[in-house]
Amino acid sequence: MNRGKMRSRSRRLLGAASAAGLVLALVSACGADTADDTTDDTTPAVTATPAEPAEDTAEVAEPPEGTFFGDDVEVGEGSARTFVVLDDDGNPTEIGVRLSEAALDGLPDAPQGPPEFWELQLPDEADDAVFRFVSLDWASHGHEPPGLFDVPHFDIHFYMIEPEDVAAIDPEDPDFAAKAENVPEPQYIPQDFTTLPDAPLAEQAVPNMGVHWIDAEGGLVPGEYEFEVVFINGTWDGEYTFMEPMVTREFLLSKESYEAEIKQPEAYQRTGYYPTTFSVIFDEATGEHVIMLGGMEMREAS
Questions:
Q1: Which of 6, 19, 92 is CA-nearest to residue 49?
Q2: Whole-model pTM?
Q3: Which stretches does DSSP call E strand in the chain?
Q4: Among 129, 185, 238, 259, which has the highest number of CB atoms less than 10 A from its own CB?
Q5: How many angstroms separate the Cα of 292 from the Cα of each of 116, 154, 163, 196, 279?
Q6: Is residue 32 scored above 60 in pLDDT?
Q7: How far apart are CA 234 and CA 216, in angstroms?
């Protein structure tokens, strides 16, 4: 096991002086911690160093044949690993992240800082899936806006672009605003997903992520919405770039199950296997929390 790449994400805080500003903070969903109103972009990264694996004492079984894993990464007092499930023809049917029970304990507590994240590499067998890597983000005190996502939770970004392309989403780029405003053509955006109509996309864009899109039919009203599990999409410079399940630590601890369909676009920019469902379950056989994108189907770029 290794510690992967655990770092702190430094984010600009977006104003919330009006109702539009409040919801604008929603699309900075993986931005600064709720308790941090002064974080700047100079927060140093946390350098990961090799470490001995944390010990999970329970004896567990491996998932069934046809499941392949990325490297174990130390998270909290446990571990995380990516996985892919292949059918008999070698095509991906499920892809996701498995967290050991102990991974929910001993997590970084950063009330005055941005979320931590771990860069997780996918197994080689996942190459036919549309995703290139996964970023597991931990917001120990949630994030803005108050009354919506301000509880401890994980943001799991499944990126369709390479890590270096994500790292290049930088406000210091002179074309940052133009790239944020360059949204994909409508046929490439999942049904019902939208950005905010009253705020420039350059202000909505989150460094090292991009522009977040929310489900207009999802009932995301601060003070009314009860956050447990939610699904976000993201874009950058004319491309649909990530899918992002978000799940609270409390929901994971409950070991309850959640499953929903993933809303699809009319057309696709990349050829590959795309998920049609997402779920959160606790695998009793392995003792792991599983955040999974399933029902994968081949789509051709058009």
A1: 6
A2: 0.83
A3: 5-8, 67-69, 73-75, 78-86, 92-100, 116-121, 133-139, 153-159, 193-194, 211-215, 229-236, 239-248, 258-261, 272-274, 277-283, 288-294, 297-299
A4: 129
A5: 21, 14, 21, 28, 5
A6: no
A7: 14
d(CA 11, CA 100): 28
Collapsed DSSP state (helix, strand, coil) of residue 179: helix
The three-state secondary structure class of 91 is: coil
**Per-residue confidence (pLDDT) for residue 6, from 0 to 100:** 57
Domain range for 173: 5-299
Beta bridge partners of 75: 78
In whole angstroms, give the CA distance from residue 278 to residue 265: 16
Any idea how long the chain is? 302
Record the tokens describing residue 68, joined without a space. 């392949």
Residue with tokens 């780029």: 173
Residue environment code for 7-39, b if the CB has 16+ CB neighbours within 10 A, otherwise e:
bbbbbebbebeeeebbbbbbbbbbbbbbebeeb
Residue tagged 């050991």 (tokens): 100
Nearest 5 degrees, angle CA 136-CA 159-CA 244? 60
State how many domains the chain has.
Answer: 1
Model confidence pLDDT, tens digit, residues 90-114 = 999 999 999 999 999 999 997 766 6
Decide: 38 and 167 in contact? Cβ < 8 Å: no
Tokens of 179: 């790239």
